[in-house]
Fold:
Amino acid sequence: QARCGISWSSMKVGKPEWAAGETVNILLQLRLEPDPGLPGVPLLGEYVTSEDDRAALAVLLASPELGYPVFLPPGVPPGRAAALRRAFGLLMKDPEFAMELARQRLDLSPMEGEKMQAMVAELYRSSPETIARVRELAVSRETR
Structure:
């Protein structure tokens, strides 16, 4: 039996007994950066040898890395965006907020707004060849 695509944080909330013991064997992480809660579990990218496939994998795995972004529309004055980023950063460090997350067994791994913006900009710079490879990898063989 196997399951693919469940996030570590979802498993910790939905199946805490699996995450706490040796009930399941996690074979690899479908992420760009390793989850600190999964030491020793390799990343899928460690097995990808082709640079073209690495570029496609970066696009395919961007969504889990970006998580649930909070964003603003174009044209927001830079000062207002900076103030909102500061406020968000303060919330991420708030002890009461952290206690509530812990109570609900939820993880928090916020990404700085500047880093997220750079990541999205990099995705938009993906070559047409990379996007074609993403489509090839992401579409099931039955629908081709």
